[in-house]
Write a structure and sequence with these properties.
The chain is globular. With 339 residues, it is an alpha/beta fold. The chain has 13 helices and 12 strands. The chain starts with a helix and ends with a helix. The longest helix has 16 residues, at 29-44. β8, α10 and β9 form a beta-alpha-beta unit. Strands 3-2-1-4-5-6 form a 6-stranded parallel sheet, with helices on both faces. Strands 7-8-9-10-12-11 form a 6-stranded mixed sheet. α6 packs antiparallel against α7 (183-193).
Length: 339
């Protein structure tokens, strides 16, 4: 991380009286872990920090220390808009485009606050006064650790901060199954363990904490809704609104579904298509050198990382699936040679 940026960040934190931390719409474990870790850090620096999430997030993340301090825009719009208006320093964590807040971009753009970006996704928009954007990190949570360390405040990291950071790293690497081959990642994990965190309990809280309906939905998807396309080393799952309703869907229930078909022999590329009210939400995963990020960006208004990304379609579910399948022949050789 550039020393000049860290020095400027240190100065702005010292000057700030009303910092605000915000993450993206539909926040995942890295997003929530990162904002909570940084919130605890700012509190220990004596700052009256505010955390904002654009919408609700899965119950399996709500055990994290400090969860009760998150203000959700969809339920408390007036409170959030007032906090944005009053903030003198805004941290945007785990996203690099205001459009990913889905409804708050206008207010963030209008804010006079100093804006600080901390994120590990590629191609950041040019909105931040201080931009700490590094795609080599496993997760934004890992970046948060390095930022605190670079600010000379590693001694302020306690068990609460360590739990939040570990949860972010664990979830954004699929329990260290992808985007996690940098030795620094494990150096950070080692230091987090020294703070007495129970990594097994964190795993159980996230991955062994689903509802009975979620398990039924998973079984249904694997049995009835998974399609393997062997000539293109691809497997897909699609779910309609009616099917989600039948299985009493709540936010987070489909988390991880897209990863499961990757365990099928010779499958290198997977996608899940979930029908929402106004669009089709899509997640992509891959093995090896096949870039889901480029695929999502080119065809589905999305982006992310090489092996894990997302996007959306404004077509019907049937049309979206047809469009997706029509692109696969272009990538046959690339998928064949991905490993």
């Amino acid at each position: 991380m550039q020393k000049t940026k860290i020095l400027e960040l240190k100065k702005q934190i010292e000057l700030s009286e009303k910092p605000l931390i915000i993450t993206h719409y539909n926040p995942d474990g890295d997003a929530i872990g990162s904002v909570l870790a940084f919130f605890h850090y700012l509190i220990k620096k004596g700052k009256n920090a505010v955390i904002v999430s654009p919408n609700d997030y899965p119950e399996f993340l709500q055990w994290l220390p400090g969860n009760e301090h998150v203000t959700v825009y969809k339920r408390n719009s007036g409170t959030v808009l007032n906090a944005i208006h009053e903030a003198d320093l805004i941290f945007t964590l785990d996203f690099n485009d205001f459009e990913r807040t889905e409804g708050l971009e206008k207010y963030l753009n209008e804010s006079k606050a100093i804006k600080v970006l901390i994120d590990h996704h590629p191609n950041p928009k040019d909105f931040a006064d201080i931009s700490i954007s590094e795609i080599t990190y496993s997760s934004t949570a890992e970046m948060v650790y390095h930022v605190i360390e670079s600010l000379g405040d590693e001694h302020l990291i306690d068990k609460n901060i360590a739990e939040c950071i570990y949860c972010g790293i664990m979830t954004d690497t699929g329990s260290f199954n992808y985007n996690s081959s940098n030795p620094y990642t494990y150096s950070v994990v080692s230091k987090l363990l020294e703070h007495g965190i129970d990594k097994d309990r964190i795993y159980w809280n996230v991955y062994d904490n689903f509802s009975f309906d979620r398990m039924r939905l998973l079984g249904y998807c694997l049995h009835k809704k998974m399609e393997v396309i062997p000539e293109y080393y691809t497997a897909i799952i699609s779910i309609t609104k009616e099917e989600l309703k039948e299985y009493n869907f709540v936010s987070g229930d489909t988390e991880g579904f897209v990863n499961i078909p990757l365990s099928i022999k010779n499958i290198r590329f997977t996608a899940i298509f979930i029908e929402k009210d106004k669009q089709i939400k899509i997640s992509f995963r891959s093995k090896g050198n096949f870039s889901t990020n480029k695929f999502a960006e080119e065809f589905f208004n999305g982006g992310g990382h090489k092996n894990a990304s997302g996007g959306y379609s404004n077509l019907s579910l049937e049309e979206t699936l047809s469009f997706f399948k029509n692109q696969l022949p272009k990538f046959k050789d690339e998928l064949k040679n991905a490993l």
